[in-house]
Structure formats: structure tokens, C-alpha cells
Amino acid sequence: MTENKTLTLDEAMTLALTVLTANGFSEGHARSIARTVYAGQRDECHSHGLYRLLMCVATVRANLVDGAAVPEVVDQAPGVVRVDAKRGFSPLALEAGRPLLIEKARKSGIAAMAINNCFHFSALWPEVEDFANDGLAAMAMNPSHSWVAPAGGTRGTLGTNPIAFAWPRPGKHPFVFDFATSAVARGEIELHRRAGKPLPEGVAIDADGKPTADPAAAMAGAMLTFGGHKGSALSIMIELLAGPLISDLTSMESQEIDKGANATPLHGELIIAFDTKLFGGNNSADNAARAEKLFDAIVDQGARLPSQRRYEARERTMASGTVTIPAKLYEDILALMP
Ligand code: NDP
Ligand code: PYC
Fold first, then answer.
1. Which ligand lies nearest the alpha carbon of 304?
2. Distance between CA atoms of 121 and 171, rounded to whole angstroms?
3. Among the residues of the chain, which ranges form H helices?
4. Which of 158, 161, 104 is nearest to 131 (CA)?
């Protein structure tokens, strides 16, 4: 049986901040990364919670990421914000560009933000959920490393390419979904390997192109997209929109830069924000009510909305004031202290 370690929420946040600052991250980066992994752990998204500290530190120790980079915000066009992350991690770059993106979306109804030149380790739901909490609908997407074979192929070519969407709901948690376009996230494969557990069927092939449930063989082979050719096409769209469209790297190009270091991917991210009130004009209250009818019709029949599990986990965590992680992960995080 796996032994676990329980931490209070304060201890979890302090652990993240201490490990990051001890490994040379500036105060701003340490705070924004800690906030991101804390949110993941709080909502029981284990593949993007405290576990990610291992990759953040490995990436700074490999001299790839600049732990003190100061992002530069550029007002690129009336509807476009560009943030150069300067090879820092993405959360601080997002924080820097967010106010201008919101201002532009409120002025024009829609605006986009390209974050360039960023190392990226995070789940996307905290980002889009924050925009929805400010009353905007939002989408986010990014490439990663070329671990995933296209439908019908056998070679890692596409990233795990997540896409997330949020819709604001007055008085309620926003509607949010966020998923990898691979059948499972790379982080899940890594967690299965650490726990010595087999993978579900249909998520990966080995180096010979044969289906495998062995996480190590999957990492040496290729992951598969969700939904066959449909997930594959969506993943290609993400490569294009959050790659060449915004003058940034594809997952294959990010993988080349990694040179086998197994660090966090380096690439761009595209975020699009929509002002539902400006789109809706005089109808916006009615539009919001009709959206609620749709959600009700889904929930009424016993189906659940995406993020419901996460919001329930958040409630449990906040009530207990604690998070629980595998004891081995806790030891590995402590061992990151220089
Ligand atoms: P999951 O498959 O765990 O979940 C995908 C989405 O579907 C979630 O919004 C989830 O909500 C929802 N969902 C799950 N089951 C149901 C159900 N039965 N009914 C309705 N909705 C459901 O996510 P992935 O493993 O694909 O991705 C995990 C994370 O990894 C994401 O947050 C993603 O951003 C991150 N990631 C980041 C990458 C990066 O490059 N930075 C790359 C790839 C992934 P709920 O959470 O409530 O279960
Ligand atoms: O889980 O696929 C993943 C991932 C890649 C980068 C960060 N998370």
C-alpha cells in the first residue's frame, strides 16, 4: 500500500515557496509557480499539483529556464497582447499580460494574448477559471513536447496539447473544462510509472508501435490522441494556433531544444477572452439565463459538468485544511533543497 503524507494548506504553500526560492527562482516566479501547484493539489489534480515542483527544479538545474526572467508585455494590436516570457515559466508572464488582455476584451468584445518563449508546466483550468471569475469567457491552449503520435501514425509528433474553456456563471462556479488532446496527460503516465501501476488500454504504443500498458514502454514509444482522428485534428489545430500563428515553437521544435534533458517544454500559449456582455448587448441577461438552462438540462439527467469533481475536491480540501500526497513524493520534494 502507498504511504501518504498529509500537509496543512499553509505547509503545502510554504513547502512550494521554500523549494522554489532555494533553487534560485525570483520571488515573483516562486510565488506564481507556488500558487499554480497549490491550486492543482487543492483541487486534487495530482498530475499538476506539488508533483510539478520536481520538473520546475529539474528545468532550472538543467540551465534551461531563467528563474529570474522578467516578462515583457507588448501592446501588439487593438485585439492582441503579446507577452515575451524571456525563457521564464509561464505563470508570471500570464500575470503580467492579464490586465491588458481583460481591458482589450472589455473594449472590443474579444481579444487574444500570445505568451511567447515560456517554459510551461501547468494545468490550464486555473487560468481560464480566473478569467471567468472576472466575468469573461475564455479559452487557452498550448503545445508541449512531441510525445504523441497522430491518428494512424506511430511516431511522437504532436504534443499532449491541452485545451481549456471557461464560461462565467453568476453566483456559481464557472463552467470549466480542461483536457489534454492525448488520451491521458503525460503527467498521468509519469504518475503511473512512479506508482508502478499499468496504464489503461488505448493510451500508448511502445517503440515497436504495439499497444502497451507499461508506462516506461509508453514513454519510450508514443502516446495516442483521445478520440482517434478527432483528437488528432484538434491537437494539430493547437500546434498551429499556439505555434506558428503566434511565432512560437511546435512540440517537435520544443522537443529538439530539450536535447534529451527531459525538462519542461518551451513554447508559446494562446489565450482568447470574450466579453459575453458586449457580444450579447441588450440580450446578455437572457443569454446567461439560457446558458443556465443548458447546464440544468445536463445535470438534471444525472450527467455531471466538467470541473464538478474538482470543485467538490476543493470544498473537501478547504474544509479539512489539508492535502495528501504520496510519502515518496514528499521525500523527493524535500530532497530538492540544495
Ligand atoms: P482529465 O481527463 O482528467 O479531465 C478532463 C476534463 O474532463 C476535466 O475538465 C474533467 O473535470 C472533465 N471530466 C472528467 N470526467 C468527466 C465526466 N465523467 N463527465 C464530465 N466531465 C468530466 O484531464 P487530462 O488528463 O486530459 O488533463 C489533466 C490536466 O493536464 C489538465 O488540467 C491539463 O491542462 C493538463 N495538461 C497540461 C499540459 C501542458 O502542456 N501544460 C499538457 C497536457 C495536459 P474534473 O476535473 O472535474 O474531473
Ligand atoms: O501532463 O502532458 C502533460 C504536461 C506537459 C507539460 C505539462 N504537463
1. 1
2. 31
3. 9-22, 27-42, 52-61, 90-108, 125-133, 186-195, 215-220, 228-241, 251-258, 276-280, 284-300, 308-320, 327-334
4. 104
Does 89 fall in a domain?
A: no
Judge if the beta carbon of residue 178 lies within 6 A of ligand 1.
yes
Q: 320 an active-site residue?
A: no
Digit-coded pLDDT (tens) for 63-105: 999 999 999 999 999 999 999 999 999 999 999 999 999 999 9
Quote the pLDDT of residue 127: 98
Ligand 2 centroid–CA 192 distance in Å is: 14
- Ligand 2 atom with the smallest distance to the CA of 55 is 7
Q: Which pLDDT score, from 0 to 100, does residue 330 have?
A: 98
The dihedral over CA atoms of 313, 319, 320, 326, expressed in degrees to the nearest 10, equals: 20
- The CB of 313 under 6 Å from ligand 1? The reply is no
Average pLDDT over residues 313-317: 98
194 found inside a domain: no
pLDDT at 1: 57
Q: Look up residue 162 and give its DSSP letter.
A: E
Residue 154 included in any domain: no
CA-closest residue to ligand 1 atom 12: 306
The answer to the question of residue 75 being in a domain is no
Convert the pLDDT of each residue in 154-183 to its tens digit. 999 999 999 999 999 999 999 999 999 999
Residue 4 lies in domain: 1-61+308-338
Query: What number is the average pLDDT over the span 131-140?
Result: 98
The total domain count for the chain is: 1
CATH classification at residue 337: 1.10.1530.10
- Beta-carbon contacts of 13 under 8 Å, excluding residues fewer than 6 positions away, are 34, 38
Rounded to whole angstroms, how far apart are CA atoms 196 and 43?
24
